[in-house]
Amino acid sequence: MPVIDGTELTCQLGGRVVFAHLQLQIPRGGFVGVFGPNGAGKTSLLRALLGLIPLQGGTLQILEGDAREARTQIGYVSQSEPKEAEGRLSVAAFVGAAWRGERWGFNWHLTALHQAVRRALERVNAAHLASRPLQSLSGGQRQRVRIAQALVNPARILLLDEPLNNLDPQSQQQVLQLAKTLTRQENMTVLMTAHDINPLLPFMDHVLYLANGKGRMGTVNDLLTTPMLSELYGTPVTVSEHDGMLSIRVGNGFIPEISHHCHDHGAQP
Question: Residue 81 carries which DSSP code?
Answer without folding.
Answer: P
